[in-house]
TrEMBL record:
<dbReference type="Pfam" id="PF07702">
    <property type="entry name" value="UTRA"/>
</dbReference>
<dbReference type="InterPro" id="IPR028978">
    <property type="entry name" value="Chorismate_lyase_/UTRA_dom_sf"/>
</dbReference>
<dbReference type="InterPro" id="IPR050679">
    <property type="entry name" value="Bact_HTH_transcr_reg"/>
</dbReference>
<feature type="region of interest" description="Disordered">
    <location>
        <begin position="1"/>
        <end position="25"/>
    </location>
</feature>
<protein>
    <submittedName>
        <fullName>UTRA domain-containing protein</fullName>
    </submittedName>
</protein>
<feature type="domain" description="UbiC transcription regulator-associated">
    <location>
        <begin position="30"/>
        <end position="171"/>
    </location>
</feature>
<dbReference type="InterPro" id="IPR011663">
    <property type="entry name" value="UTRA"/>
</dbReference>
Length: 182
């Protein structure tokens, strides 16, 4: 299997997302592989790091959209998204259906268009025992970990996604950093 390149320079553009059901699917398909995602939805109190990034009060439930993402039927990453209750509860985000363009499309429809994101990437760390079992890897096979923190036009955090996957399946993480603003 070829390594996957995650190209953040345009994976979130409306044109690229319109190619498929979201950035991951469009990106994997452009790289000549077949994408597939399995999604479950639940309400829960998020892990402490996620709650901190969301700015949630302790012990406050949020909506979790768990996504297991495959390329050519190989599990390449787990990427649950955590969304504040006042945005997600009682909305179509609790439905398993995914519109063309993915969750970003649904968030925009709900009035919470994601306008920028911060990403905290750890390129390589030892896997947890759960990750070893889930990805069928050994304890000496590292995983990457990335927290994607998305903001709306009011600078409110509207979603935190926690991406993890085996390093050997991923080639590059590509970003464009704006140095000068007008």
């Amino acid at each position: 299997m070829p390594q996957i390149t995650r190209d953040a320079r345009d994976r979130y553009s409306a044109a690229k997302r319109a190619e498929d059901r979201g950035g991951f699917a469009a990106e994997v398909r452009r790289q000549g592989m077949t994408p597939r995602s399995e999604t479950t939805v639940r309400r829960e109190v998020p892990p402490a790091r996620i709650a901190e990034l969301l700015g949630s009060e302790p012990n406050t439930e949020v909506l979790v959209r768990d996504r297991d993402m495959y390329a050519d039927d190989v599990l390449v990453q787990r990427a649950p998204s955590y969304i504040p209750a006042d945005i997600a509860f009682g909305t179509q985000l609790e439905d398993l259906t995914q519109p063309q363009g993915g969750m970003l499309t649904r968030m925009k429809e709900l009035g919470y268009e994601e306008v920028y994101a911060d990403e905290y990437l750890t390129l390589s760390r030892p896997p947890t025992s759960d990750e070893q079992a889930y990805f069928n890897i050994q304890d000496d096979q590292p995983v990457f970990e990335m927290y994607h923190v998305a903001y709306d036009a009011t600078d409110r955090v509207v979603e935190v996604s926690w991406h993890r996957g085996p390093v050997h399946l991923w080639g590059n993480f590509v970003y464009r950093v704006q140095i000068k603003r007008d």
